[in-house]
Amino acid sequence: MDNHRREERKKIMAFTPVHDLNKNILLGYIADLTLQGALLVGERHVEIYTELILAIDFPETPEFIARRMVIPARVAWCKREEDSPYFDTGVEFQKLDQPEKTILEAILERYQYRREFPT
User: Fold this and answer.
1) What is the pLDDT of residues 36-68, one digit of tens each?
2) Which DSSP string do the residues of 25-93 spell out, in sequence order?
3) Which of 5, 71, 91, 97 is most deeply packed, by most CB within 10 A?
4) Whole-model pTM above 0.85?
């Protein structure tokens, strides 16, 4: 995978489960997110290059009535960290329409982790 990211990954503070709709299984939870893809942490190994239909269950907010997004994606990589029972899985979103991009941008703005530094 290309190590040069086009966009900085944003850590997400919200509990965000991600399901594989084709197999109707929980893949894991979002650790970080961009408009291009996401890092999932879960208990399942997923083969590289697998095409998925993801169902991402974002927290309900006053701005977003429909909190579930369905996004086609491809697995870019999957590995288990040493001494960990969990797999890190990088997925690349395949097709995002402008309304979906707008929703993701708003979710990133609302739920990204921001550390306040004392002045």
Assistant:
1) 999 999 999 999 999 999 999 877 666 665 578
2) EEEEEEEEE-SSEEEEEES----TT-EEEEEEEPPP-SS-S--EEEEEEEEEEEEEPTT-S-EEEEEEE
3) 91
4) no
